[in-house]
Amino acid sequence: KQEVTQIPAALSVPEGENLVLNCSFTDSAIYNLQWFRQDPGKGLTSLLLIQSSQREQTSGRLNASLDKSSGRSTLYIAASQPGDSATYLCAVRPLTGANSKLTFGKGITLSVRP
Amino acid sequence: NAGVTQTPKFRILKIGQSMTLQCTQDMNHNYMYWYRQDPGMGLKLIYYSVGAGITDKGEVPNGYNVSRSTTEDFPLRLELAAPSQTSVYFCASSYGGMENTEAFFGQGTRLTVV
Is pLDDT larger for residue B55 or for residue B97? Predict the structure, then answer.
């Protein structure tokens, strides 16, 4: 059974710092991995989707990498801002088919201090 | 750009009552999902559907039912509500093609059973 782990559960950093959020998964047979952002009381917003054949994806100040063989992904946030404060979740889709289900980590709650 | 729309946003139910959580998407996505999110527990898949007329159980289906009569709609039915069903419910959809399975989420329904 696939398990997705995100450690630490919470992180507090000063504004302007570059930071890395980690995601690990136990079964490397994945179709893709997706990073989401969730603001308090809100739904999930997709940030980046990395296909299993890709090593990284970039969107603005965000860069997500994928090392499938070691079961790891990282979300790099450059020059963090207070507006980046949110919970960040990663989710993997298994290789068994495009219609298969996402398995989520529990998320990392990020607080960026002004 | 409506995306995935859930109604209602909030609801309080008494034990034993029933209700239907509505979910509709306007992206012509084949795949739709229902998740529940409990504090510290991450997202758990309740039911999913790979197309109209096809549904299947996820990790935590007990106490719920779904139907998928159209591509757009995927309602979640709670029969005989129990306090354990107090949670935030998220509906999601994805195209499900071979190249792009990015998932999009609704804003959630916060349900309290008292």
Answer: B55
Higher per-residue pLDDT: A100 or B67: B67
d(CA A19, CA A113) in angstroms, rounded, equals 13
Nearest to B48 by CA among B38, B61, B39: B61
What mean pLDDT is predicted for residues B29-48? 91
Nearest by CB to B104, from A31, A46, A89: name it: A46
Tell me which residue of B107, B67, B110 sits closest to B86, measured CA to CA. Answer: B110
Contact B6, B22 (CB under 8 A): yes
Q: In what order do the strands lie in the sheet with A62-67?
A: A4-5, A19-25, A72-77, A62-67, A56-59
Instruction: Say if A39 is an interface residue toward chain B (CB within 8 Å).
Output: no
Distance of CA B11 to the CA centre of its chain: 15
Please give the C-alpha separations between residue A51 and each of A17, A44, A46, A48, B56, in angstroms, as whole numbers. 28, 19, 14, 10, 25
Please list the rounded mean pLDDT of every run of 10 residues in chain A (114 residues): 94 97 95 93 91 93 96 97 97 72 92 96
Instruction: Give contacts of A40 with chain B, Cβ < 8 Å.
Output: none
